[in-house]
Amino acid sequence: QVQLAESGGGSVQAGGSLRLSCAASGRTFGSSAMGWFRQAPGKGRVFVASINWNGDSIDYADAVKGRFTISRDNPKNMVYLQMNSLKAEDTAVYYCNAVIGRNLVIGSWGQGTQVTVSS
Predict the structure, then answer these.
(1) Cβ proximity of 26 and 107 under 8 Å
(2) What pLDDT does 108 receive?
């Protein structure tokens, strides 16, 4: 099973950028699709982006398409989320996980990393 630790969150003004990192451990990381999810205050956790094991298949939620970029570095067991042109509605706790599709997660949830965007 994959264990996960997110980092890189912070507070930025609208229009700014952040890069989130996800450190993964576990023997299956290199063969697992990985995804980012977010949970805004008072709302459920939702899909943001996913990347397959070798990076040649990527999926984004409509809300972030064109602004966010997911990537991975398999030798380092890392997954990244570059977030540009941030909006107030991007404010949430961001989580990564091993995924199948958009809705089925495989690993245990980490603590997440808080992103706060002020307008």
Answers:
(1) yes
(2) 87
Is-contact 81 20, C-beta < 8 A? yes
Q: Residue 52 is which amino acid?
A: N
> Tell me, what amino acid is at 3?
Q
pLDDT under 70 in the chain at which residues? Answer: none
Return the pLDDT at 14: 98
For the chain, counts of helices (H) and of strands (E): 0, 11
Q: 3-class SS at 4?
A: strand
CA dihedral of residues 18, 23, 28, 31 (deg, nearest 10): 30
The amino acid sitting at 39 is Q
80 φ/ψ angles, rounded to the nearest 5 degrees: -125, 155
- Output the pLDDT for position 26: 80
Q: Which two tokens stand for residue 49?
A: 């982006």
Query: Is residue 37 within 8 Å of 44, Cβ to Cβ?
Result: no
Would you state the pLDDT for residue 113?
A: 98
Q: Find where tokens 């996980």 sit.
A: 97
